[in-house]
Amino acid sequence: MGKLGRAPLVAICTAAIAAVYGAGYVATEPYAHRVSPGSPPAAPQPHRGEGEAGAASAKYRDGVYRGSGTDQIGTIDVEVTVAGGRIAKVVITRCDTHYPQSDIDPALPDEVLKAQSANIRFVSGATLSSFAFAMAVQQALDEAKNPDSAGGGA
């Protein structure tokens, strides 16, 4: 080592680690309320637009609806099929993110089918992709709830 020894190197490395940690916190903190798979289930929360008495038997209009979600790492497009007023199928039609579609598919579409909403558990390690997916599904479901929507054809 040079005249200064290890102290400056340790200080620089410590500062770099702190910067990476801080950046990670800033990037993921807005999504901290989401639960990742394997976590204990949270108490069910009513979804936007649901009454206090719970969901009606036919929550959505039948048809195929499309949505798109975008975040800092890319865009995810989905197609949501509603049959009998319930979500019957969710397909990721485009996944243009830094991570492969296999990181979230079929885990997230299956979560939507279970929850019958976009309020799903995120995939750990794919938080931003999960968020973009949930936004895309919510956009499609908002269309399925809107009686003035033109997207109800199969």
Automatic annotation (TrEMBL):
Protein's recorded name:
FMN-binding protein
The answer to whether the entry has keyword Signal is yes
Question: Where is the segment annotated Disordered?
Answer: 34-60
Species this chain originates from: Alicyclobacillus sendaiensis PA2
Provide this UniProt record's keywords sorted from A to Z. Answer: Signal
Annotated signal sequence is: 1-18
FMN-binding domain mapped to chain residues: 72-144
